[in-house]
Amino acid sequence: MGKLIINSFEEFASHLGEQLGVSEWLRIDQERINAFADATLDHQWIHVDVDRAGKESPYKSTIAHGYLTLSLLPYFWGQIIQVNNLKMMVNYGMDKMRFGNPVITGSKVRLKTTLASIENLRGICKVGIDFAIEIEGQRKPALKGLATFLYYFK
Fold first, then answer.
1. Burial of 139 (0-12, 13-18, 19+ CB in 10 A)
2. What is the model's pLDDT at position 111?
3. Is 0.85 surpassed by the pTM of this model?
4. With pLDDT > 90 as the criterion, what percentage of the chain qualifies?
5. What would the DSSP string read from start to end of 58-119?
């Protein structure tokens, strides 16, 4: 499945209830985890202390921050969809978000999306996207929820 190209509210609405796409896999390495820890000032040992995590963690490894996993949403979203004819796009909210499975360092993750809802709010396109960030080889996703975006078409 290639990248979905959307040019209007009507084109978006025609995909209601459909899977919009699946991103490529991305490996989550210790360097990325450490950079996220530095950016967010969250240096909990389960994320950054490789030796301690190897001995004390039930996963025998460091794991990615849940919010690191969430922060990949825009990167993955850009692989799935291209929306043209926009003035701007705004993140509106997150609902029903659950961290279901840890992302062990070295794992690969990807995004799977479905168009859950769409409304025309006086020319603003409000879109609800059911999403799951999957972990390669795992049945249960790392993260799932409902992301809401506002698209301002020209």
1. exposed
2. 98
3. yes
4. 97
5. TTSS-B--HHHHHHTHHHHHHHHEEE-SEEEEEEEEEEEEEE-S--BTT-EEEEEEEEEEEE
